[in-house]
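Quick question: what would this complex look like in 3D?
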Amino acid sequence: MRIALLAAASTLVLAACGTTSSAPKARTPDVPTTSTARQAVAVLASASGSLVSGSVTLTPMGKGLHLTGEIGGLPANGTHAFHIHEKGDCSAADASSAGPHFNPFNTAHGKAGSGAHHAGDMNNLTANAEGVAKVDAHIEGVTLGGGAINDVAGRALIVHAAPDDYASQPAGNAGARVACGLIKVTQ
Ligand code: CU
Ligand code: ZN
């Protein structure tokens, strides 16, 4: 009896697998998940004439990276877009040198964790009454070190003047770039 039930169950599983593989291939890229570095730090300096600066530590965790740190000099209680941008170049006064959002899979801008979004898209930061935003975020689908297509080492972390609306293309209508930092591997 027990054996019969198991057999029936495995037949169902096999049938389900068969159905899946014969269906049209979903548009899910193979996302590399192996990071070779153990830690990176981005020291963010002000841009666009702001007073915003801070430091964020990035650590591989699960299928992505965990970010912790603090950004200060923001307007009190403000909400600010926060992204990884493609180029590790913060040299322009307005940080335009960092290029667009990091987008190795050629997707639309959006909200991380709900539908299409850039690999570099993250949730908005919120400053407290002192203008300090604590960073405690997780970003899926990116790696640190190793040179895979989704490796964020050597790219830039950017804070914007305005919140990300998670919808407008190509960058969420987030306004000026008020701080920029190179993601530098430290371990
Ligand atoms: Cu941005
Ligand atoms: Zn984006």
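Answer marked as accepted. Residues 83, 101, 109, 118, 121, 171 surround zinc ion (ligand 2) (CB under 6 Å).
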